[in-house]
Amino acid sequence: MTGTWSLIRLALRRDRVILPIWIVVLSVIPGSTVSAYEKLYPTVAARASLNAGTGSNPSVAVLYGPAFDLSTPGGWSAWRYGSFLALFIALFAIFTVTRHTRAEEDSGRLELLGSAVVGRYAALTASVIVAGASSLLIGVLIAAGMASAGLPVAGALTLGLTLAGTGLVFTAIAAVTAQLTEYSRSANGLATTVLGAAFLLRALGDSTPSASWVSWLSPLAWPQWSKPFVNNDWWVFLLAIGVAAVVASIAYQLVPRRDIGAGLFPSRPGPATAAKSLSSPLGLAWRLQRGSLFGWTAAVVVMGVIFGAIADGIGGLVGDSEQVKQIMERMGGTQGLVDAYLSAIVGLFGMLSAVYAVQAGLRTRSEETATHAESVLATGVSRIRWAGSHLVFAIVGPAVLLAASGLAAGLAHGLRSGDLGHQLSHTLGAAMAQLPAVWVVAGIAALLYGAWPALAVSGSWAVVAVSVLLALYGPVIGLAQAVLDVSPFVHVPKLQPGTTFTATPLIWLTGVALVAVVAGLATFRRRDIG
């Protein structure tokens, strides 16, 4: 463990920008939405209708989880935001652990530190402490915010601690995946695959009363199944600590069983001669990016089928509250809740595509820090061709994801509603309309990489987090329009029946993205490599 404290300080120093953003944004959301409940459901009748409509609606349970008691502001907030907060906290934990373990080995820095007075377990311990302590801090701040909003302290603590418990579990899972694979991208991919499986298990168990036990297999379901503001089963937090301790112990057992820079999963030797496709920068980029693109495409297709199939049952989400109907329609359409729901879903796919776009675009940064870029650029390949070959996937890849998700959701909804032709084209068009907003995020990431490479990773993910959270929660908590306009997803027109489509916002978004990409390539061309 020698050197653990120094590595903790180093991690905090490196994450001094992105870490506070994650903590503050995730912490303030629940408490800031409490006041919205009184406005959305001002009468006892509206709250009773909400309870009746959501309690037995499997379509709603897939999205938000089980509705145990929506007659109080605390119960509603825990139901409405609990599952998404658990998902974001889990992602935060995965990225943090991988960044300070496997990514450090990829760059060679951990081997350099290990040759000095740094113990073999120091890096893993430091990353687990940083991610775990941050998850606990987020949970405590969530509890404090909800309690300060006037909610019962016991319920606020139950929700905050169980959300923190989800972060602890995925901290441990990421610690294990960092030992299994050789590259940070593979470790992140494996951990997020586990997260995706946990989401599907939660959706299956929550939407199937006869198989509700399945939800207990998913750490994402534990915050809501602790029944905050109802039973306040705080022992679920102890369950999360126990599971995290067991999984983390596995990671510590794996550390001495592998070499620094290697994973337990052996790398396959390549062929003796390279394929002709690898003779160009684009071919090399395709070889490096194709696995991620295929995995993301499969994931959004599955999600599109699930969300599209449950669209007809979404009407029970709001009960008889006219206020909520108006908000949903403002967010996604004017011709009923199903249209608004479909628009919200394609908006979610747009945000997921932005995550992929940043991941694909930042491959240039990981190639540069691993010194692979120097080997390529030492040949006749120009900087613009090399960086542009990876940017192709940040630009075209999201289009593939949005087309696949729109087709899957439209096909599933069209078959169930008996209106396949209209719903297929309608949902596909709404999904593709998200593309310019995704390009803006990808363009900003390209600009950060070219102009400020040291801030490329943290800054790009900060842009994604702010854009997504403003679009998801800004309208609900009543943020000013000037604040909401910071997110490019707010400017995407809603392609719903009865609305007038205008291409002006899409043209402006595309123009902003184009300027950012050109500026990023121009600045990259003039700076030093590494």
From TrEMBL:
Organism (species): Actinokineospora terrae
Superkingdom classification of source: Bacteria
Keywords for the protein's UniProt record, in alphabetical order: Membrane, Transmembrane, Transmembrane helix
Organism lineage string: Bacteria, Bacillati, Actinomycetota, Actinomycetes, Pseudonocardiales
Keyword Mitochondrion among record annotations: no
Protein name: ABC-2 type transport system permease protein
TM ranges: 17-37, 78-97, 118-147, 153-175, 187-205, 234-255, 293-318, 338-358, 391-415, 427-449, 461-483, 503-524
